[in-house]
Amino acid sequence: MPLANHLIIHGRVQGVFYRDWTVETARKLGLAGWVRNLSDGTVEAHLEGAADVVETMIEKMHDGPPAANVERIERSEAEAQGFETFERR
After folding, report:
1. What is the rounded distance in angstroms from the CA atom of residue 76 to the CA atom of residue 69?
2. C-alpha to C-alpha distance for 65 and 61, rounded to whole angstroms
3. Would you name the residues annotated as active-site residues?
4. Residues 6+ apart with CB under 8 A from 55
5. For the sheet containing 86-88, what is the strand order?
6. What is the 3-state secondary structure (H, E, C) of 27-43?
7. Where does the pLDDT of residue 2 fall: very low under 50, low under 70, confident under 90, or very high at 90 and above?
8. Is 6 exposed, middle or buried (0-12, 13-18, 19+ CB in 10 A)?
9. By three-state DSSP, how is residue 13 classified?
10. How far apart, in Å, do the first and last CA atoms of the chain sit?
11. Please, what are the domains in the chain?
12. How far apart are CA 60 and CA 70, in angstroms?
């Protein structure tokens, strides 16, 4: 069963290609799930995959694309939903 994590990313993460970067990076790593903007200026994501790959992705998400400035990431365990791919919502 894959590990699943729910994330809320805080900082300058909207309007800086953060979601597109997340989709591209997650797909390269073989993760499933989704990413979307929230109305409060944060980005929400759901990651599913092998524990070590999820950890690698979260480490990368602290940096994000060049224009982003991630202040912090709230992380909680989630139920795996069995997604086939990683998508932008």
Report:
1. 21
2. 8
3. 19, 37
4. none
5. 69-77, 3-12, 43-49, 32-37, 86-88
6. HHHCCEEEEEECCCCCE
7. confident
8. middle
9. coil
10. 24
11. 3-78 (3.30.70.100)
12. 11
**Confidence (pTM):** 0.96
Looking up tokens 């365990």 gives 77
Radius of gyration of the chain (CA): 12
Nearest to 26 by CA among 6, 46, 9: 46
Question: Three-state DSSP class for 17?
Answer: coil
Tokens in use for 51? 């524990």
For residue 43 the two structure tokens come to 């980005």
Per residue in 9-61, pLDDT tens? 999 999 999 999 999 999 999 999 999 999 999 999 999 999 999 999 999 99
Tokens 């060049």 label which residue? 66
- Hey, how many other C-beta atoms are within 10 angstroms of the C-beta on 68? 21
